[in-house]
Amino acid sequence: MREIRMTMTEPQARFFQLPDKYPAFVGGFGTGKTEALAMCATRDALESSSALIALYEPTYDLIRLILAPRMEEKLSELGIRYRYNKTENIIYTANGGCGDFVMRTLDNPARIIGYQSYRAHVDEIDTLKKDHAQHAWRKIIARNRQMPKGLENPFNRVSVYTTPEGFRFVYETWGKNPKPGYAMVQAPTRTNPFLPVDYIDSLRASYPPQLIEAYLEGRFVNLNSGCVYPEFSRVLNHAPTVAMPGEPLHIGMDFNVNKMAAVVFVVRDDCPHAVGELVKVRDTPDMARMIRERYKDKGHAITVYPDASGQNTSSKSASQSDLTILQQAGFQIMAKSTNPPVKDRINSVNALILNDQGVRRLKVNTDLCPTYTESLEQQPYDDNGEPDKTTDHDHPNDAGGYFMVWRWPVVKPIATHGAHVPHMRR
């Protein structure tokens, strides 16, 4: 039997050795959740050549960009030969004594069918809505019943790895009143001794205060109570900024029939300054005309950051999309194929309103942007923990957010993993 060594942080080592049927690794950014998943999944596969280890991510993109590369890296590092079938999303190993890995998404739990797994590892399940996560969890544990050949006492287990996202599924299942068999390891970011020196400071500069406990300390905190933008102040975030003649303008835009909204920004010292708004506009042709008359015809270069749904057909013209109408008006368009997650957009805006170092970068001329000011002050969360859309405060906020998440996205600094812990024998 050859020796296999794995290097771990202290929380990873505690998690690796848990004997429970349903363990959860709940950690802040940079704590090595995906690395812990890869190590534990590989350990499980080495119990039997017939073992099938199921690995889950919220979306296919996360499988393609994060999970599959990490598993390939881990197998190569341990000298385990494999073949990755991207069509089936299965990693087949060629080593005697090592099982295979099937990778699936959580976006449609009804598709978690057609196979039985010996062990399962679920990444970032807390990013799902509570009901969705509960449904996916039940489907996963129902699939987790394989009895691999050669094991006298096979032990089926499902492990979870996630950043805490408020009082959602993981809190209810592992934090509040866990049933027998449910165990949790919580890992603060500072427990990883191999992070870059400025990693934590970078997070504090990029994130609003209400997220630091969750994303640095790995704690369950209420991320959804009260207002969507709780730190916005019409006094502290106010600036009397106006657009200078010929100054480039950046316009965030939200599409809604008879409720179109746009927020006009200039950028000073790498900070967004809201200097104008257009609200309750009928449709895209009207919006294009108003922007052209107010700004473009007066010498301003216009860049629009729209809702990505504007690539669909305009409500006014069956032959043109909203983005086409804006392009024909002479505006530069900055839009991806899909919108970023709502959470990412809100985090970007909140980090600009006030970051954890006490710096306010978003400035709003509250005299020129009265509706946008009121919307930032008053938009609440609904009963499902989503931004409320019943008061129309969402339209200006979404519009401004599309620009800010494009220009100042909240991006996790690149982290490393590791510290020392036990080795395995094969």
CATH architecture verdict of the largest domain: 3-Layer(aba) Sandwich
Radius of gyration: 25 Å
- The CATH topology of the largest domain corresponds to Rossmann fold
Taken as a percent bin, the fraction of beta residues is 15-25%
Question: Can you give me a brief rundown of this structure?
Answer:
Helix content is 31%, strand content 20%. It is an alpha/beta fold and 426 residues long.
Annotate the secondary structure layout:
Layout: E1 3-5, H1 10-16, E2 22-27, H2 33-45, E3 52-57, H3 60-77, E4 82-85, E5 90-93, E6 100-105, E7 119-123, H4 130-143, E8 157-162, H5 169-176, E9 182-187, H6 199-206, H7 209-217, E10 249-254, E11 260-268, E12 271-281, H8 284-294, E13 302-306, H9 322-328, E14 332-333, H10 342-353, E15 363-364, H11 370-378, H12 394-407, E16 423-425
Parallel strand pairs: 2-8, 2-9, 3-6, 3-7, 7-8, 10-13, 12-15, 13-14
Antiparallel strand pairs: 1-16, 4-5, 5-6, 10-11, 11-12
Helix pairs in contact: 2-3, 10-12, 11-12
